[in-house]
Amino acid sequence: MILIEHATVLTVDAERRILADGSVLVEGRDIVQVGPAASVSPPRTPDRVIDGRRRVVAPGFVDTHVHLTEHLSRGLMRDDIPVPRYLPDWLLPLYGTVTPEEEAAAALLACVEMIRTGTTTFCEAGTLFDVAAVADAVEAVGMRAVLGRWSWDLQTGPGRMQQTTGDALRWNETMLETVHGRAGGRIHAWPLLLGFGTCSPALMQGARALAERHGVGWGMMHFASHPSRRTSDRVPLGELDALGVLTPATKLAHMVYVDQDDIALLARRGVKVSHCPTAG
Q1: All domains of the chain in start order, with CATH
Q2: DSSP-derived pairing of the beta strands 56-57 and 2-10
Q3: In terms of Cα–Cα distance, which of 132, 266, 239 is closest to 189?
Q4: What is the rounded distance in angstroms from the CA atom of residue 1 to the CA atom of residue 107?
Q5: Mean pLDDT, to the nearest integer, of 181-187?
Q6: pLDDT of residue 279
Q7: Cα 192 from Cα 190, distance rounded (Å)
Q8: Do 144 and 81 contact (CB within 8 A), yes or no?
């Protein structure tokens, strides 16, 4: 049993209370009491008491878009890489050659850094290959996560990056059957497509249907490239809506270059957005 006492506690409860002198009691995996310090009463002597004065206690943060593998590329890529060359010359070779052991090591590093900064739950970007190896690492650390596999069918790359629509959907189905629900439900798996215009309508519709069948969400990255750049990352949201893939179970990441009509459509459909304003 752990007692954190006399801290500033952000409860995030229905009343959005902030307790200037609050305490939190933890028993095993459960938070069993939260309240003003005078009202939190342990049923026995705690195994550990943490003085929370001059500290803030908050619920764990949620990072809705994490590229785990790119923790391995720090210091590898130059800061002045031209934007059009970043993906083909640097990131695709990295992702095309990374091993399961390296993916697991990158996941461990990312998880440790997230925990140190208060993040306890994350959604991966859909850029993994050996999802089971990463799930092993996340399970060992004790975090909650949504994991996804690299999936596209309009672009290609070395080796395992060559995928047909059928390949991508079949591999996602296997991932859902073997990874989703692990660690007592702490680890989820979703069809998380690469996006950026690299996925056909059939793949997007298939991912949405697969997610619906398994009762999970689905998503992809979209609208990260400035409109002045000639990229395939310009599929209008109206076209996605016509395909029937914009639903409350859809998560779109990046979404930097949208207009008021786009925002209104996303709101009507209940689409979830992981906004990355500096990643375009």
Answers
A1: 2-57 (2.30.40.10), 61-275 (3.20.20.140)
A2: parallel
A3: 132
A4: 29
A5: 96
A6: 66
A7: 6
A8: no
